[in-house]
Design brief:
Rossmann fold, EC 5.3.1.6, Alpha-Beta Plaits, four-stranded mixed sheet, 29% helix, 6 helices, Ribose5P_isomerase_typA_subgr, binds ribose-5-phosphate, 14 strands, 228 residues, single chain, 2 domains
């Protein structure tokens, strides 16, 4: 089975956890797009839900599929958020997210949800976060070079400002920048997350410790559902 087929399998399985009447957070990324497509099919069949998207791209996809949208003013608490991830640590279910640049809105939506379902293909589970994926850190543009120095002091070995296809600094949906920070294998995810939370200039980071309530993993043969 191809990687895309695995993503689609995990995504459709996660989308099928949504029940009528739910307020649902829509994650961002290629796996999330498959999930939104499946929700679009279910809405076309009569499923009554409202959704809050985590990026402009996913909002456009949801609108194109006629998925009704809402906002936090009307629904400050979501029943479920469903999203992909870049790495999932086996056992703890800590996550790295944000290679698609949507980590800030994704974390706001996940925090507002009673249940946070993460769906991944077989390439995403790892024994320890950070060995192969940098931690994306969203920073305010003002003084980002100073913030980069602070991130180095917090242990980032290599810091790469995210750039777009034209070579310019990439700007998030929130008007910020992303610094991809290679911390190597992370021994204490919660501790690093707390340090990053306290760094001046950091808006949010892609460590999601102890947030997933369910992880749906698709291998080429089966679907597994992990809980903490
Ligand atoms: O900002 C992007 C998100 O955190 C994505 O959920 C994450 O990068 C996984 O994306 P994909 O499903 O495309 O691998």
């Amino acid at each position: 089975m191809s990687l895309d087929a695995c993503k689609r399998l995990a995504a459709r399985s996660a989308a099928d956890l949504v029940e009528p009447g739910m307020i649902v957070g829509l994650g961002t990324g290629s796996t999330a797009a498959f999930m939104v497509e499946r929700l679009g099919e279910r809405v076309a069949e009569g499923l009554d839900i409202k959704a809050i998207p985590t990026s402009n791209a996913i909002e456009a996809l949801a609108r194109s599929l006629n998925i009704p949208l809402t906002d936090f003013a009307t629904h400050p608490v979501l029943d479920m958020a469903i999203d992909g991830a870049d790495e999932v640590e086996r056992g703890s279910l800590h996550l790295i997210k944000g290679l698609g640049g949507a980590l800030l809105r994704e974390k706001i939506v996940a925090r507002a949800a009673k249940r946070f379902v993460v769906m991944v293909d077989f390439t995403k589970p790892v024994d320890r976060l950070g060995a192969r994926t940098p931690v994306p850190v969203e920073v305010v543009p003002f003084g980002w070079q100073c913030t980069s120095v602070v991130l180095g002091q917090l242990g980032a070995k290599l810091i790469s400002p995210r750039r777009g296809p034209n070579g310019d600094l990439a700007v998030t949906d929130n008007g910020n920048l992303i610094l991809d920070c290679d911390f190597g294998p992370i021994k204490d995810v919660q501790e690093l997350a707390t340090r990053l939370d306290g760094a001046v200039g950091v808006v949010e980071h892609g460590l999601f410790p102890c947030m997933a309530t369910d992880v749906v993993v698709a291998t080429d043969r089966e679907i597994e559902q992990w809980t903490p």
